[in-house]
Structures are given as structure tokens and as C-alpha cells.
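User: Fold this; C-alpha cells only.

Assistant: Input:
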Amino acid sequence: MPQSRTLFGRPGETDLVTVDRALAEFRAARPVLLRHGGELALALAAELAEAELATRLDDLSAGHARLVLSAARLRRLGAKGRAETGILAMPAIDLARIEALALKLDARVDAPVGPAGPLDNAALELARLSLVLPAVILVPVSAAQVAGEPLIEVTIEAVNGYRAAQVARLSIVGRAPVPLEGAPDTEFVVFRGGEGLRDQVAIIVGKPDLSTAVPVRLHSACLTGDLFGSLKCDCGDQLRETVQWMAQNEGGILLYLDQEGRGNGISNKMRAYKLQSQGWDTYDADEVLGFDLDQRHFDFAAAMLKQLGVSSVTALTNNPLKVGAIKAAGLEVAATQRVLGRPNVHNVRYLASKRDRAGHFIDMDALMARAAPKD
């Protein structure tokens, strides 16, 4: 695909714009044309496939369609120890079979699992970027078969390089003082770029000294906990208590990152919540849906901090993944500090799972003591 300046684009941004458009098509249940050298394939989100479109794709496929599934979903389907993306042949595009393989709890692998190729892996990345289930119908086609069709064509290099390209174009688009309860000296700084089509926000509390280690929290958005006070997690407590602590301790920066449900999106988070209500552990619920422990990326968060003039941080987190990401991006982590929420009957298993399954630094004894009634 062309890399030069276009009439309405900036130099080098052709691929970025094309992937933006491809994501919009993919989320709208329309197929996207993926290219890898001379190979072409139509990619369609499995969860969004409708009968009429499936029939048309089946006619094109001539029996060569395949279903691309993540390693996590394949493990749940019975492919024990699976660590790589895999494909299942689709001699016919059968929506009932696809739904079972992509989503049903009691489904099992019903055909040999083949190795994924570059087109397959790019198709799954398109699904992840689109925040739909990581299950894609892929139909190899020729240029002649799709000639004249109103399709967005994108190379796998553009898809695979999209996240890094978004980080590179991260920029501040607005900032203003926003007094908060308990933290009246607060400024909101809005960034565009970094993660998909969404804006990100840095909340600067007080006047932190940028020449020293700045207290920083990377906080992934949680609609249920942050806004509605859900008892299923500790997110709302961590958000509000971090801002109050910063206001009382010479300031800090909280990055509010649009990465709902550990990067899986709000729809998949609700699917996981339903599974949890049926007794599944939070991480097992995500794996049933095809997701690994954590889908989030934090390289753009580090880029936000650098643009704000931060070079060294005291990381306010229980998550070692965040600490590692900050270090990997070239910032110094001078110290870490735990961020406690309040345990309750609805979230205690969730907190223990984060400690035991993902290595979070959570002292359950300290949390329970904090929740104990005061005399």
C-alpha cells in the first residue's frame, strides 16, 4: 500500500488511516480485506456474522474458509497446553458451529487444529483492536473475486504495526483545571492517540515536583466500579483514594486509561461478569472467552508521562505488569506503593485471584483488617 503523502493525509499516515477505517468496518460486521504479499483473505468477526453474509462468504470460499481462534480459547475447547493461535477448517460456514466454537461453554474442538499463518494472526489482532471476541472467520480470495466490492483493504504489516503507530502520534489536545472533591487543585490533560480511536486522560493532582520521583498511578477505566460503585472489584476505591492521597501528599499524576475489562472491552467484560456469577474465577472467565490473563498495553501510558516531563516515578500499584511496562519504556521506577481497596463478600475472591493468578501484591490480611468494624 502507498506510504507517501496523500491529498488529505500526513506523510507516513496512510497505513494508520486505513487501519482506523478497517476497525470501523470490522466492528460494524462488515468483512475487511487483509493482504499479505500476494495473498488476500476476507476477515469477519465471528460473533457478528449474520446468515445472509455468511452465505455469500461461503459461496466465495469454495470450502477453504477457516475459523481463527486464540490459544486461550483453544485450551478451553480441549487443546491442552496450546500456546499459539490456531485455525479450524470450515468446509462450510456453519454459524451454529462457529458460535459453539467461539463462545459456548461446553464446546470442544471438533476438527484438527492447524497452525496459524501471518494472515490468521493479523486477523486476530484486528479483533483485539476492535474489542470483539478473538474469533475470526477468514476466507481466502483472489483479487478477481472481490473486484469492484466496497471493501477496505489493509496489509497485515499495517495491522500489526498499528499500536506502535498510535503511540508515535500521541499528542495533547486539551487541558483545563477541574477541581475535584478533596482535591481542588487538579488539572485534566487529554491525549489523542495511543490506544485505538479513544482519548486518554492524565489527571495532575496538586503540583508534583517533576525533578524527583513523581507518584503515578496507571488506572484502567472501569465503568462499573469507577462510576457506579460496583462491589465486584476494588477499582472505584483505588481511583478515589489515590486522588485523595495525592492531594494530601504534595501531588501526583493519575493516568485514566480507556482499557475496560483488562483491555477486553465493556461487552466482553459483561460476558465475563456473567460467567463469574455462575462460579467462574475472573481469569478463567476471560479464558473461556478467548483472552489471556491481561490484554492491556502500557507503552502509550509511559509516552504520556514523558510528554508531561516525568522521567522517574513512584508507582502506585499492586500490579507487577505495570511496573515492568514503565521500566521497559525507559522511565525509572524509584519505588512502588500499594493501593488498597475495600474487600467485601462480592470481591474477595476476585482480589485473591489477582494475587494468586496474576502475581498482584495484595496482602489479604491487611485488607481484611482494613474492612473490620472499628470500635
